[in-house]
Design a protein that fits this description.
This protein is an alpha/beta fold. It has three domains: 210 residues, FAD/NAD(P)-binding domain (3-Layer(bba) Sandwich), CATH 3.50.50.60; 112 residues, 3-Layer(bba) Sandwich (FAD/NAD(P)-binding domain); 114 residues, FAD/NAD-linked reductase, C-terminal dimerisation domain (Enolase-like, domain 1, 2-Layer Sandwich). The chain has 14 helices and 22 strands. Strands 1, 2, 3, 4, 5, 6 and 17 form a seven-stranded mixed beta sheet that branches. Strands 8-15-9-10-11 form a five-stranded parallel beta sheet. Strands 18-19-22-21-20 form a five-stranded antiparallel beta sheet, with helices on both faces. The longest helix has 25 residues. It is globular and about 65 Å long.
Length: 463
């Protein structure tokens, strides 16, 4: 007779494995189903972690080739060993996925290897074996959205997965999609020597971003050498021995044209992944975009079946999935957790980085909220000058009446780290005055956050 569990989590990505570990910590008997040979899901295997490894390595390469001389560091001829760079990426991935395997053993989480399928409420089948459980958690994540007329082969036309494994630097890389993934991987290959063109259907990059920040971001990436074709759609891709020929058309209609590429990266977004899971057969409701429908406690339409992460509504972010995994585990253990979805940061890991949290100006205007703006440029920050990284600024939005921080948007060095201060401030309901009155170390990049908070009240000290 197969084992029975209190909780079976299907999917071992950031949401799934964190949910499994937290549930086990709370005394529940837990199994986690994963069909990959390694734990960690898309994020650790072919997403967040390997992409950040390549971003870091390519930043070092560009710095050595173009920036170190400004600091009086002369390194002579700089050459690229792409095979070694990719091998290092693999080592980083291996260390991370092995770490999750260790945590499963430490917390006594059973890894059920194979594809999971829900056969009925309380029953999950894995590799031909049926398991009983009180609770099923769907944490199967997401997959790259396909584009009609553009056939992915992960060689000439790649998704982010193939974009992390190219064995040579493309002469011309065309990125379809101006979102987080496309801009990050486009940055990697531009630094390593590719000509990069980004084709975006809308009239701006990363449309969810604060508009002022987005425009400045586009200008900076343009100065770095990235080219943009906005308000343009791709209607076809023809592969040949000499590369790929894309057919482009204006988004609002007009004459078609062709664009040649050595490699095409398709990065128009991601969609919920539930293939083979048995969701429909189990009676679990989904919405028009294929996402599993849940209530405020992650319950689906079927009692005893829950869902978290990319497979449900909300931003497709690993840390959002982790928070949901923890909250659901604690809910199943009888606790009363809470997630503040207004305080979940998003980061684009280009250089400079872009980090955002809370509301944009456009959202506040649409909601009719009276607000104040405080901005401070990194050109006026001593540490940024010392680093030689002065592009960008910090922007804080606060309620006009209460001064409560409603959002923040940072374009600049280490923005992904700097945004954490605002996340904590928003979690505790802090005002811009609270941030401004907090002592910040000097000289530090964080002082730009303090100055932006001061600027909300028109009293920045260093500009």
């Amino acid at each position: 007779m197969a084992d029975s569990f209190d909780v079976i989590v299907i999917g071992a990505g950031p949401g799934g494995y964190v949910c499994a570990i937290r549930a086990a910590q709370l005394g529940l008997k837990v199994a986690c189903v994963e069909k990959r040979e390694t734990l960690g899901g898309t994020c650790l295997n072919v997403g967040c972690i390997p992409s950040k490894a390549l971003l870091q390595s390519s930043e070092h390469f560009e710095e050595a080739k173009h920036k170190l001389a400004d600091h009086g560091v002369n390194v002579g001829s700089v050459s690229l060993d792409l095979a070694k760079m990719l091998a290092r990426k693999g080592e980083v991935v291996t260390a991370n996925v092995k770490g999750i395997e260790f945590l499963f053993k430490k917390n006594k989480v059973t890894w059920l290897k194979g594809a999971g399928r829900i056969t009925s409420p309380g029953k999950v089948e894995v590799a031909g074996t049926a398991y009983d459980t009180k609770h099923i958690v769907i944490a199967t994540g997401s997959e790259s959205i396909p584009l009609p007329g553009v056939d992915v082969d992960e060689a000439q036309v790649v998704t982010s997965t193939g974009g992390l494994e190219l064995d040579k630097v493309p002469g011309h890389l065309v990125v379809i999609g101006g979102g987080y993934i496309g801009l990050e991987l486009g940055s990697v290959w531009r630094r390593l020597g590719s000509e990069v063109t980004v084709v975006e259907y809308l009239d701006r990059l990363v449309p969810s971003m604060d508009n002022e920040v987005g425009k400045a971001f586009e200008r900076i990436l343009g100065r770095q050498g990235m080219k943009f074709r906005l308000k343009t759609k791709v209607t076809g891709a023809r592969k040949g021995n000499d590369g790929v020929t894309l057919t482009l058309e204006p988004a609002q209609g007009g004459a078609a044209e062709e664009l040649k590429a050595d490699v095409v990266l398709l990065a128009i977004g991601r969609r919920a992944y539930t293939e083979g899971l048995g969701v429909a057969e189990a009676g679990v409701a989904t919405d028009g975009r294929g996402r599993v429908v849940t209530d405020g406690h992650f319950a689906t339409s079927v009692p005893g079946i829950w869902a978290i992460g990319d497979v449900i509504a909300g931003p497709m972010l690993a840390h959002k999935a982790e928070e949901e995994g923890v909250a659901l585990a604690e809910h199943l253990a009888g606790q009363k957790p809470h997630i503040n979805y207004d305080a979940i940061p998003g980061v684009v890991y280009t250089w400079p980085e872009v980090a955002s949290i809370g509301k944009t100006e456009e959202q506040l205007k649409a909601d009719g909220v009276a607000y104040k703006v405080g901005k401070f440029p990194f050109t006026a920050n001593g540490r940024a000058r010392a680093m030689g990284d002065t592009d960008g600024f910090v922007k804080i939005l606060a309620d006009k009446q209460t001064d409560r921080v409603l959002g923040a948007h940072i374009l600049g060095p280490d923005a992904g780290t700097l945004i954490a201060e605002i996340a904590i401030a928003m979690e505790f309901g802090a005002s811009a005055e609270d941030v401004a009155r907090t002592c910040h170390a000097h000289p530090s990049l964080n002082e730009a956050v303090k100055e932006a908070a001061l600027a909300v009240d028109g009293r920045a000290l260093h500009m």
